[in-house]
């Protein structure tokens, strides 16, 4: 799976047109009627569904997901749609809203066509059932943005049919959520998905990936007890563990390690991204001072109350995840000392999701579209934090003892990986909630998840209506978030133009 099969795209030369003056079967291309014959063709169609994940317009592609943090207090992006959105200047014609909508349906359409036709193929039934489960997971994955960001969209589960599907109205968010959970439950049923893969199949959907995605969906839906149960299923598989080195977790040589549950698979030269260039040259997201300040001191306390924090040496005695994520002036990166002007956007650079190391000078200068570093969509640390949050919200901070994993223990596992001290005993539910939210921010920074977090916690309007400053205190921009509008993305104007039955979200006009 590291290298998606190139011939998969033959499937998408399928022609649905019929010339009225010519009643013959085309011999120069596949059609839906002629394609579905062999196991290899079925696998190619499934691989092409996976390939949508790394489509440059997909919300799961490496660049687009990392850049989502620019819609939060974590990072700043000055030259993409994220900057327009973060300043409150977006509308239904803004590009990312259209590309996310369209690419989600591209993935859904490929999954639907696969599921509608796979039974035509004579092949091993166990493998066929596994393929079906993978496709249902992928369909759920592609429906996630339509549910979470747009608040509902036309629900399509049949093979592509323009005549019947082009004018469908939006289904409610609850109806889309129901379908997502149905797909995930069916994908997990019967244990047809393996726990792990090897060889060329590494990177495909596993049982753990299904449970982890289900936990995320239920957490975002505030269905706390169910979310905790789904997360605990991942934990109880005893397949995953935290990778010992936090920075090393994101190195090319450690792809597919024991913390990775599901990731976007890149392979040079067919499927690549440009994060090595865009992040290092400040064409991508630049960390903001607020994120840097939120990393605790090594005594486990905020820098505002820590006895070991020294304002004269602000980057010393800090949570190791700070310098594993952010490039700090005066430190060593790429074998050289980082200067004060090296990262002019905010004063800081983003280290995570570049291939560069602190003490090694690159032997080759990367160029655009050459990085093959996988982007991790689901990982075990996130599962532990989801479990902790869901348990705390459902039952309080002392819950989970009957299963030998308390809320605090789950959080502490994540902290201990970077030698941060355990949480203090006796935290109330409110105090634990604050610690879990802090932990999610610093552990998952630059992974796109904090944008979803501040939206579902309904704090985006509190943390985003502010000016943006660099590390010297200079104002560089402003942020605006309209609480009556911006918790949902607009339905793209071109989609409504093509299908007037679509109803626009509040605040975006007709």
From TrEMBL:
Q: Which residues does UniProt assign to the signal peptide?
A: 1-22
Protein's name in the database? RagB/SusD family nutrient uptake outer membrane protein
Among the entry's GO cellular component annotations, what is one?
Answer: cell outer membrane
RagB/SusD domain residues: 286-508
Q: Which residues form the SusD-like N-terminal domain?
A: 21-219
Q: Which domain of life is it from?
A: Bacteria
Q: Where in the cell is it found?
A: Cell outer membrane
The organism is Adhaeribacter arboris
Name the family the entry cites.
Answer: Belongs to the SusD family.
What coarse category fits the chief subcellular location reported for this protein? Answer: membrane
